[in-house]
Amino acid sequence: MAAVTPKVAQHAKLPPLASRFVDAASMAWEKTVYEGVEVKTLIVDPETGLMTMLLKMAPGATLPDHEHVLIEQTYVMQGSLVCAEGECKAGEFVWRPAGSRHEAHAGPEGGFMIAMFQIPNKFFQPDGRVTDFIGRDWNSAWGKALFRD
């Protein structure tokens, strides 16, 4: 099985079909390359790109120009997530079709949400590079997952 919860070593000892219980509250928040944006990765499958993460954004923190390569789903638990198309507030859900592209930012109270990806987003850097959420070259990290058989 390729799917894992990073930094949860005891999962490696489990049988392949065992449930993976994740104590998200005890996991450390990890900084991203974007100021005021932190994550806890709950599951990632490097072979397919499947990923679910908790996302915490400080008030006004921005996720710059990015493309949703495949469907992305976000449920906001606290605060809000804002883009040019609207605002997703606490208790609300937004999903974005494959190929959609935008910037997003946290509202004045910040935001706490769970985000589910079929494959991680492409972030378009000012210098022309295309990266994933943590700054790796997108094609090197996820290209094989997108174009798998």
Quick overview:
The chain is mainly beta and 149 residues long. 6% of the residues lie in helices and 44% in strands.
Overall description:
With 149 residues, the chain is mostly beta strands. It has a single domain (9-14, 30-146), classed as Sandwich (Jelly Rolls). The chain is 6% helix and 44% strand. The chain has one helix and ten strands; from the N terminus they run ββββββββββα. It has one helix at residues 138-146, and strands at residues 30-31, 37-44, 51-57, 62-67, 72-83, 86-89, 93-96, 101-117, 122-124, 130-131. Strands 1, 2, 3, 4, 5, 6, 7, 8, 9 and 10 form a ten-stranded antiparallel beta sheet that branches. Strand 1 (30-31) and strand 2 (37-44) form a beta hairpin. The radius of gyration is 15 Å and the shape is globular. The model has no long low-confidence stretch (mean pLDDT 93).
Fourth-level CATH superfamily: Jelly Rolls
Write the H/E string, N to C. Answer: EEEEEEEEEEH
Number of strands: 10
Q: Report the biggest beta sheet as strand number plus sense, adding barrel if it closes.
A: 10 strands, antiparallel
Structural class: mainly beta
Assembly type: single chain
Strand content: 35-45%
State the helicity in percent bands: under 10%
Rounded to the nearest angstrom, the distance between the terminal CA atoms is 17 Å
- CATH fold topology: Jelly Rolls
Shape category: globular
The overall pLDDT average reads 93
- Quickly give the CATH architecture: Sandwich
SS summary, helix count: 1
Number of domains: 1
The CATH class name reads Mainly Beta
Radius of gyration, Cα only, in angstroms? 15 Å
Low-confidence stretches: none
